[in-house]
Write a structure and sequence with these properties.
By secondary structure, this protein is α+β, with helices and mostly antiparallel strands. Helix content is 15%, strand content 34%. It is built from four helices and nine strands. Strands 1, 2, 3, 4, 5, 6, 7, 8 and 9 form a nine-stranded antiparallel sheet that branches. It is globular.
Length: 213
Amino acid sequence: MSTALSPTPRSTVGRHRERGATDRSALYDVLDHGLVCHLALVRDGAPVVLPTGYGRIGDTLYVHGSSGARWLREDGIPVCATVTHLDGIVYARSVFSFSMNYRSAVAHGTARLVTGEPERTDALRAIVEHLAPGSWDYARPPTRRELAATAVLALDLAEASVKVRTGPPADEPEDVSPEVWAGVVPLTGGFGAPVPDPHVPAGALAPPHVTAR
């Protein structure tokens, strides 16, 4: 697949086109550094947006859920997946110019129900490793019953867009005044110290793949 994003009518950036990214590496960057994907679909005639964990292998995004959910047992569902990073709140001199610094990715397509091996197991590994790197080989593997209770959907990333805003407020020249503060309040997130489960022996250290976060 080309390294460039090829916009379609659905994935073409409209407003603030200067914020649109054109390289596929920008898409991978947003996806690989996010933790929650919002998956939009139509269910029983009404729009639904579901937050979920995800994983990526190449140009395919994978999500999972309970096989008991009817919509997760269907093949060929039109969906839209989004991942967003909020990097800062932009304080402007006029209310109209307040904004956010962000990185966002949007992918459109038809979700494919994954049933064959080894893709299904590879997809589940990718989802686990994306959320908690090093955990697939450390924890007990899923049983046949657990696998049967889990549905996996795949979304091709061919139709996707990326939009990024950085920098200070875009105030109108007539609003710029030394009497009014303007700027950016960065949002910085991070992982805290691991909190052990009550059944972990006192004094036991968390394994390296946990403390590495």
